[in-house]
Design brief:
110 residues, 2 strands, flat, two-stranded antiparallel sheet, alpha+beta
């Protein structure tokens, strides 16, 4: 059986059609699947942040929350660092360049 060309397919028969609800095994709704995964990940992040805010001296490294994991999965570990260069011009210093290198602190908005 030959496949239909992409231009001749109807909107309801195309894989991942918008507005079809949950979809099925044959017609996967990728947008719906991504929404569901995003909701689960968001719920995990909210729970971890609540545990971090409600921690006490006794439960810092107990149960499902470990403070070391918070440092390991910090957003600053996954961001490309940005540096600021400041060049200084020195009269008579032909062929040499002096500069100050400073790493910019990233600001994350939630």
């Amino acid at each position: 059986m030959p496949y239909k060309r992409l231009g001749t397919q109807t909107r309801s028969s195309a894989a991942g059609a918008v507005g079809e609800g949950m979809g099925s095994l044959n017609r996967v709704n990728f947008r719906d699947a991504l929404k569901r995964v995003a909701m689960v990940v968001h719920q995990h992040i909210v729970k971890i942040e609540q545990r971090y805010q409600n921690r006490t001296r006794d439960n810092i490294n107990s149960g499902l929350f470990h403070a070391k994991k918070m440092d390991m999965f910090s957003e600053s570990n996954f961001v490309t660092p940005v540096y600021e260069y400041k060049f200084v011009r020195v009269p008579g210093g032909a062929g040499t360049a002096f500069y100050n290198l400073k790493k910019q602190q990233a600001i994350f908005k939630m």
